[in-house]
Fold this sequence. Notes:
The protein is an alpha/beta fold. It has helices at residues 8-28, 44-60, 75-87, 106-112, 124-131, 140-151, 171-180, 195-199, 245-248, 263-283, and strands at 4-5, 34-40, 63-69, 93-96, 160-164, 184-188, 204-207, 225-228, 232-233, 239-240, 254-255. The longest helix is centred in the first third of the chain and has 21 residues, at 8-28.
Amino acid sequence: MQTRTIDGNAIARELRAALSRRAATLAARGVRPGLAVIRVGDHPASSVYVRNKIAACSDAGIHSQDIHLPDTADETTLLGRIRIFNEDSGIHGILVQLPLPRGFAVERVQEAISPLKDVDGFHPMNIGLLATGHPRFVPCTPLGIMKLLEHEGVNPEGLHAVVVGRSNIVGRPIAMLLLQKGATVTICNSKTPDLGSMTRQAEILVVAAGKPKLIAASMVKRGAVVIDVGINRLADGKLAGDVDFQSVLGTASRVTPVPGGVGPMTIAMLLENTIASAERALAAGRSA
Ligand code: NAP
């Protein structure tokens, strides 16, 4: 079987061009979409992620505010900044970059963000809306995976989807989105006995375990669409996914590479969520 590599970079580029057009339409109506990114401390990877997000915003015509609080900042200071942005009608999305330094209650911080500006989709109200089939903000990585499937013409309805991983960021929300589209969904975790017996049933296989090369061809059904979410740094410094990419060539019908698959979609979906939020605010008369 010929396996098609899903080019996440190309798809994200296309979507970002369309998002720039939506931002321009908003600007013509007097609304510049705004994103506030708050970072606490000096986690090395976080500064790179934040820089990339700010650059992507600027490309798309989104105005951003980058707030960097020192390691010594406490939770009260962070909650105070969030409150200011909650009230700011020129800001349509608020993102607190994780991880936070020790001592911060992540759930309390996520709940402090207005559910109407929660572009990461981590607020319990938005998780509840997703779980009940009425999504408002959907976490960026799962939303990006759904866009990849849509772009590839893969309709989950009636298919068996297996998700490896049950995190709140990827596993659980992608399972809910696939279920909503009519897939039969199995969710696996680290306690699942005989993982291969589950993954071999998948017509859509989404792997988000953070374990390099967890999935080999022997664990993949012939013709499956394989979405590899994992990003793992190997001892030689190279990046690898959770799927043994080379081994599944010839077995899967489609597969996402790492890097260049799901990753670029995640950032595109942050832009999508921010612009959609600005559009909703304009429609509701809430925007500056
Ligand atoms: P996480 O919070 O560590 O969750 C990993 C999940 O995988 C857990 O539910 C865990 O099960 C499960 N798991 C681990 N080993 C397993 C095994 N051998 N068999 C079955 N399940 C297993 O990680 P995450 O935040 O979801 O991220 C997962 C991966 O995706 C990471 O590599 C991360 O870097 C990457 N990621 C990429 C993007 C992107 O934009 N491409 C975005 C987010 C995350 P238990 O719950 O039982 O422990």
